[in-house]
Design goal:
Aminopeptidase; 12 helices; 24 strands; 23% strand
């Protein structure tokens, strides 16, 4: 019998609560910074368990603090509130297209199960320090035009929920962090060395409208300029090193308003992803040059708006070691994998890992294609219940024995930024809004597409 059976039993007592939450949140998906119903549901459940909550107020999300009564480090555990958009998914909201095609609903259910288990008698015995549980909004970097409107109104400063919470000071007292994402595949638990970061781009080509049949020669086609921009980006792909894991994938969000009018206002969104922020920013300069030159080629213009996306995730080795121990207490060793692989997706957990020791492991249970129309949670036991057990066991391992393991994590941490202030100065240097083509009086053209950026590798 496992020495941790009492911890597992503490989670088992709340199976119904966990599965009810998984079902409710699946059936009520909401995209980033719109998760009011989801946040309210969890808030009520947490308060019923006896927790005092600290709400973000003008955006969804909250956190609570559990004090063991003995001094020690503070460990942050998070779950993400937001959904994706996939109108083709059979369970998508018919009005918004929102659907939990990345399994965040299972994360939330597991976090609620963890919160309930932490209230059980004896669970905190022998632990030192504090535990912060947090339901955080807006991990999926979608609807960036909407998020920019929030930014312009002063409601948020950053597109990602964890970055926003970090900026607001909600994590100032935290020493380390982890969250378990849901995944598919053969393993019950899985983790990698890390994953890509990104810059978020909004691109607005400007032309001149004219009658598409009667007088097209009087117009400047912004859609053609955007098409040239996409082709120019594609022509750059062979210059990207495989080891840098670069991904660039623009979409057109507005291509014109009437078929008989030359498009004069065309909008695109894109990421520039990569494994290293310095490389990402250098590639982004190439992308901006290509976009600007494409506008200039046909006499159009382009407004380039770059925003911090996410910093690459680098999982802390000591936290991964603890996670692996916990995973193997719950699942057979052959169903646990800690690899040196690198992921090419992005998460704002990477930003957390830039300023404190952090990890972003995975709990299996999903089937179908992530972000796709067939994604769903088949093994709710592993995705929700076993995930909660593993997180509870990690907390126990970190904070028992006078928090010896947590203190080791702190002592041996290797961070890219030594302070929150240094980190925000670096990512703020990414922000730019440029009208990139200057038509000079002498007929020459100047491209203005770059700025000095101070990010670290």
């Amino acid at each position: 019998m496992s020495e941790y059976k009492y911890l597992f039993d503490a989670v088992e007592k709340h199976r119904t609560l966990i599965f009810e939450a998984e079902k409710y949140i699946w059936e009520n998906p909401e995209t980033g910074y719109r998760e009011w119903k989801t946040s309210t549901y969890l808030e009520k459940k947490f308060e019923k368990l006896g927790y005092k909550l600290f709400r973000a107020e003008n955006i969804p999300g909250f956190y609570t603090i559990i004090d063991t009564g003995r001094p020690g480090p503070c460990v942050l555990v998070m779950a993400e509130l937001d959904s994706l958009i996939c109108f083709e998914h059979p369970d998508a909201d018919p009005q918004t297209g929102a659907v939990h095609a990345c399994g965040h609903h299972a994360q939330c259910a597991a976090l609620l199960g963890l919160a309930a288990a932490l209230k059980e008698e004896g669970v905190l015995d022998g632990l030192s320090g504090r535990i912060k549980l947090c339901a955080v909004p807006a991990e999926e970097l979608i609807e960036t035009e909407y998020r920019e409107t929030l930014r312009q109104k002063g409601i948020i400063r950053y597109y990602g929920g964890k970055v926003e919470f970090l900026y607001r000071g909600y994590f100032d007292d935290v020493d380390m962090a982890f969250m378990f994402h849901t995944t598919g595949g053969k393993h019950r638990f899985y983790a990698t060395r890390g994953s890509n970061g990104c810059i978020v781009k909004n691109i607005n080509y400007k032309g001149v409208a004219a009658h598409a049949g009667g007088s097209p020669h009087e117009g400047i086609n912004a859609l053609y300029a955007a098409t040239l921009g996409i082709h120019a980006i594609n022509a750059l792909r062979e210059t990207f090193k495989d080891s840098d894991h670069i991904r660039v994938h623009p979409i057109v969000t507005k291509g014109g308003t009437a078929v008989n009018a030359i498009p004069s206002d065309v909008k695109m969104e894109s990421y520039v992803r990569g494994a290293d922020m310095k490389v990402i920013t250098e590639v982004n300069k190439k992308i901006n040059r290509a976009l600007a030159a494409s506008a200039a080629a046909i006499g159009a213009n382009v407004i380039l708006s770059d925003r911090p996306g996410y910093t690459p995730l680098i999982n802390d080795k000591n936290l991964l070691r603890i996670a692996e121990r916990a995973m193997k207490e719950i699942a057979p060793a052959e169903h646990v994998a800690i690899t040196d692989n690198w992921g090419t997706g992005c998460t704002d957990m990477g930003d957390i890992s830039a300023v404190m020791p952090a990890i972003h492991p995975y709990a299996g249970g999903a089937t179908g294609t992530g972000h796709g129309s067939d994604y769903r949670i088949e093994d709710k036991e592993n995705a929700c219940v076993n995930s909660a057990k593993c997180q509870l066991l990690m907390l126990n391992m970190l904070l028992s024995n006078d928090a010896a393991e947590a203190k080791k994590v702190i002592e041996e941490k290797n961070l890219r930024y030594q302070s929150k202030e240094e980190y925000f100065k670096a990512i703020d240097s990414i922000i730019q809004d440029k009208t990139a083509v200057i038509y000079n009086e002498d007929g020459t053209v100047t491209l203005d597409f770059a700025k000095e950026i101070t990010v670290k590798e």
